[in-house]
Specification:
It is a single chain. This protein has about 140 residues and is an alpha+beta fold. The chain has a single domain (about 30-140), classed as Barwin-like endoglucanases (Beta Barrel). The protein is built from three helices and eight strands. Strands 1-7-4-6-5-8 form a six-stranded mixed beta barrel. A two-stranded antiparallel sheet has the order 2-3. A hairpin with a 2-residue loop joins strand 5 (about 90-95) and strand 6.
Length: about 140
């Protein structure tokens, strides 16, 4: 009886662990940006400096294998760190993709937008490959 109960408890723990890993994988790899053209009203901010970052080199606030952004949410692909002049939650279009401002750039880089690429070394390499770009940024106004 105790062996069977212990086996069920272990199985339940394994299921919870696997579910947590799947949820973590889903959050870390959720692609928020859409590639569709926007029909929302917007204002062009002109050309802005766009960089990219990953949790590998920029996780200042780790919590349970996640990095927390300035809005307190776990970092996920499709969010950006934006200049302090914009409120958290502000939406932008960059290269036809919509991003949500949920993090802040370092004060030394205030004025640029920084796209979150994901967790792990491979996403660090993606961020480095992105480099520094000058791209048009559209501010969604609805």
């Amino acid at each position: 009886m105790h062996t069977r109960l212990a086996g069920l408890i272990i199985l339940a723990c394994l299921c919870v662990g696997v579910t947590a890993l799947l949820v973590k994988h889903k959050l870390a790899n959720d692609i928020i940006p859409s590639t569709t053209t926007t029909t929302h009203p917007y204002v062009s901010l002109g050309l802005k400096t766009i960089t990219a970052y990953s949790a590998y080199e920029s996780c200042d606030y780790p919590l349970n294998d996640y990095c927390l952004m300035a809005d307190g949410q776990p970092a996920r692909i499709g969010t950006i760190a934006c200049p302090y002049e914009f409120k958290l939650g502000t939406r932008f279009i960059i290269e036809g993709k919509e991003y949500i401002c949920q993090d802040r750039t370092s004060l030394q880089f205030n004025g640029r937008f920084d796209i979150f690429m994901g967790y792990g070394y491979e996403n660090y390499l993606k961020a480095k490959e992105w480099g520094i770009r000058e791209l048009e940024v559209l501010l969604l106004t609805d």
